[in-house]
């Protein structure tokens, strides 16, 4: 049986994983809200100041989610208060609090 672990499959090469340096690789360190906010805005790839479903999916993929499409969907349901299908600057705090609860750790 092929035991190759495909943990990085589908993660784009621009992924900012590993941006936050950890001193001890044995200890999982959770992203802080500030780090998560920075990660999400890094994925505003068209620089329109809003996060689309596609941008959210890429951000969650980078965070290590195995179901980034679902996470993007849930995040929009939760944080998109005005229902325009995008997370704006005013709405990003709710997105960040959602991501914090998911407990992503620094890889
Ligand atoms: Ca955008
Ligand atoms: Ca919105």
Protein architecture, described:
The chain is an all-alpha fold. It has a domain at 33-102: EF-hand (Recoverin, domain 1, Orthogonal Bundle). It is built from 4 helices and no strands. The chain has helices at residues 33-42, 53-63, 68-79, 92-102. The protein is globular, with a radius of gyration of 14 Å. Residues 44, 46, 48, 50-52, 55 line the site of one calcium ion (CA).
Query: What is the H/E order?
Result: HHHH
Structural class: mainly alpha
CATH class (first level) name of one domain: Mainly Alpha
Strand count, sense and closure of the main sheet? none
What's the N-to-C terminus distance?
27 Å
Helical content (DSSP H or I, runs of 4+): 40-55%
Radius of gyration: 14 Å
Contiguous low-pLDDT stretches (5 residues minimum) are none
How many helices does DSSP assign?
4
Shape: globular
Oligomer: single chain
Q: Into which percentage range does the β-strand content fall? A: under 5%
Average of per-residue pLDDT values: 87
Q: How does CATH name the architecture of one domain?
A: Orthogonal Bundle
Mind telling me the CATH superfamily name of one domain? EF-hand
The small molecules bound here are: calcium ion
CATH topology of one domain: Recoverin, domain 1
Total beta strand runs? 0
InterPro entries: EF-hand-dom_pair (IPR011992), EF_Hand_1_Ca_BS (IPR018247), EF_hand_dom (IPR002048)
Keywords: Calcium
Pfam families: EF-hand_7 (PF13499)
Protein name: EF-hand domain-containing protein
């Amino acid at each position: 049986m092929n035991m190759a672990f495909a943990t990085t499959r589908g993660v784009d090469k621009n992924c900012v994983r590993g941006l936050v340096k950890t001193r001890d690789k044995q200890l999982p360190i959770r992203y802080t809200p500030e780090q998560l906010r920075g990660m999400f805005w890094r994925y505003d790839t068209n620089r329109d100041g809003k996060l689309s479903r596609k941008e959210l999916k890429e951000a969650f993929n980078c965070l290590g989610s195995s179901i980034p499409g679902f996470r993007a969907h849930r995040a929009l349901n939760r944080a998109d208060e005005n229902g325009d299908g995008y997370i704006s600057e005013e709405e990003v705090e709710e997105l960040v609090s959602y991501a914090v609860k998911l407990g992503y750790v620094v890889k």
